[in-house]
Amino acid sequence: MRMTEPPMLETIAVSYGFDVSKPILQRLVSRQRRQHLRAVDEVSFSIRRGSTFALVGESGCGKSTIARLAVGLYKPDGGRIVFEGQALSSARAQPAMRRRMNMIFQDPYASLNPRWRVRDIIAEPIRAFRLATRPGEVQTRVGSLLAQVGLTMRDGAKFPHEFSGGQRQRISIARALASEPDFLVCDEPTSALDVSVQAQILNLMRDLQRRLGLTYLFISHNLAVVRHMADTLGIMYLGRIVEQGSAEAIFRSPRHPYTRLLLDAIPDLEQIGRARIPVGGELPSPLFPPPGCPFHPRCPLANARCRTEKPGHVTAGGVSVACHAVAEGRDG
Amino acid sequence: MPLLEVDDLTVEFPTRRGVLRALDRIALTIDSGEVLGVVGESGAGKSLTGAAIMGLLEPPGRIAGGEIRFEGQRIDHLPPDRMRRLRGRRIGMIFQDPLTTLNPLYTIGRQLTETMQTHMRPSDMRLSDAAARRQAIAWLDQVGIPAAAQRIDAYPHELSGGQRQRVVIALALCAEPALLIADEPTTALDVSIQAHIITLLKRMTREHNTAVMLVTHDMGVIAETADRVAVMYAGRIAEIGPVRAVIRAPAHPYTAGLMASIPSLEHRAERLRQIDGAMPRLDAMPAGCRFHPRCPRVFDRCTTGQPELLPAGATQAACWLHAHD
After folding, report:
1. Interface of chain B against chain A, CB under 8 Å?
2. ipTM of the prediction
């Protein structure tokens, strides 16, 4: 690996908020102020070319918002996103750059147009980016894309409803690959699938990555899936990355109390009939995040500093952790 | 005598293009205080098994054969009003989505007291409103709703997803049923909340000696919660036995494939083992063993005869590999 090579994607202190205010009349009547939800709060990470960076977290932590920011569907309120050394907004402005990023969604039932034949769904990006113009050429490309994801040209003549969930996700992947991208954002690509089908799709995604040199931003709530896919990862809590670094290091010795909680909470095949020590508390509302460290109300290591001061990232054993307890060596 | 016995349960759906057999001769038992996990992938028939036991099959689905006995009595063809009395009082239910179970127009307290007052046994005295409210608060407290005495007047929308599922558990258990059928009770929840709910279910059912049929697609949840597990495939039980044996030493090639396809938290594999293909559709069931087109260990016999459950080590598996005749 050359050290000079710029990362595929880099986010630098990116923030994004939603305006969730009530309608103006209602606000005037009940004398409420505008309400702002900070979904992503100063998130920084970078993804090396050809690798997989995963974002993990529970619902409402902001991981899907980052997915949309990363392909330019939202514009950040603060911070910068750099795609291959260029600001994302200017990269999006050029079709040549735009075709190099694509997205795979969670629900293969909602993300395919039910009225289109599969071959037209896959041909659309090819035509849109003028990667091929003659009909015969387009069909050849569609055929090879279908073959890449384990389908046949005969499947191309069918409609999405004729396929199972796993096959539909293969179609979504073929469509995502049609514009010959280098960078794919995968938002919970296997969450709607059964485990045996999930294994097929994850294997396919790894094969394609190796063969085509793809870079993945992989979003999931399933830590076991992330363990299988990620080279590096970030754990998110209430819009912030609380721990990030090499996946191997984080799974081997998680440092942040939230990462530990998550890893501990997963029911595991290795632990038949185990008795749990339940962890306290629930996810606070992202509308009213707690002051200081957002995790402090549930944290067993919280002290006065955690309740008032937002922790910055410190590097501990090659992993970056946002936790006062880790920084002060109180985490045992 | 087991609390629940299901013998050769067959469920069919008549359609214009012929009768579809969705469950084919399912046999299982559950003892008091025991947790039986039922796992399988979408369409395997696990939820349908639960619905058939509760008498909640959606028409035109119907029980076409077999028997369901609860506390020694047949319940598969009870008249609807008697079945309704049994449900709720003796058989409790928990579904995946707490929002569809709770009535959005009533406070959770009202739903709890109403359930308790409706399902009191005739021998008991009618529960007064004040006593019912006290008991409802006690139940909310038991399932871990903070400040239960205040929260009792909350509406379902004022609670978080995890709290709603706790209320649903309280609702299912407050009539002290002998059997609880829980269909994907934690699937809609985040992992940290899921952990709470599993712990709660285990504790509550142990304290009340409730039998539980836990339907889920999540093998991890089964591993932690169940005593025994039934693995379903294409409307049949592929394997049934003690949870440890089924996970550590599966006897059916489908169970083995299913276990191997789950990514591990312990180490990163180069590739996951995958079962190629997909579960057959009801109208295109293969002859012989329903798993044989996907089975890595298929041989002649599998393509012609359908195997019944056979003893296989510590479990029973419906697989010709275990036939010694």
Report:
1. 41-42, 160, 162-163, 190-196, 198-199, 217-221, 223-225, 243-244, 247-248, 257-259, 261-266, 268-269, 271-276, 278
2. 0.82
All domains in chain A, ordered by first residue:
1-25+33-100+214-241 (3.40.50.300), 253-266+292-332 (no CATH)
The full DSSP string for B240-282 is: EEEHHHHHHS--SHHHHHHHHTSPPSS---SS-----S-PPPG
The angle at the Cα of B241, spanning B237 to B247, to the nearest 5 degrees, equals 100
Alpha helices by DSSP H, B71-181: 80-89, 98-101, 108-119, 129-142, 148-151, 161-173
Q: Which residue of A has its CA nearest to B41?
A: A194
CA of A259, closest CA in chain B: separation in Å? 11
- For B311, list phi and psi in degrees, rounded to 5: -60, 130
- How do the pLDDT tens digits run along chain A, 332 residues long? 455 678 999 999 999 998 888 888 888 888 888 888 889 999 999 999 999 999 998 888 899 899 999 999 899 999 999 999 899 988 888 888 889 999 998 888 888 999 999 999 999 999 998 888 888 999 999 999 999 999 999 999 999 998 888 899 999 999 999 999 999 999 999 988 888 889 999 999 999 999 999 999 999 989 999 999 999 999 999 999 999 999 999 999 999 999 998 888 888 777 777 666 666 667 777 788 889 999 999 898 999 999 999 999 999 778 999 999 999 988 87
Cβ neighbours of residue B149 closer than 8 Å, sequence gap 6 or more: B137
Sequence letter at residue A191: S
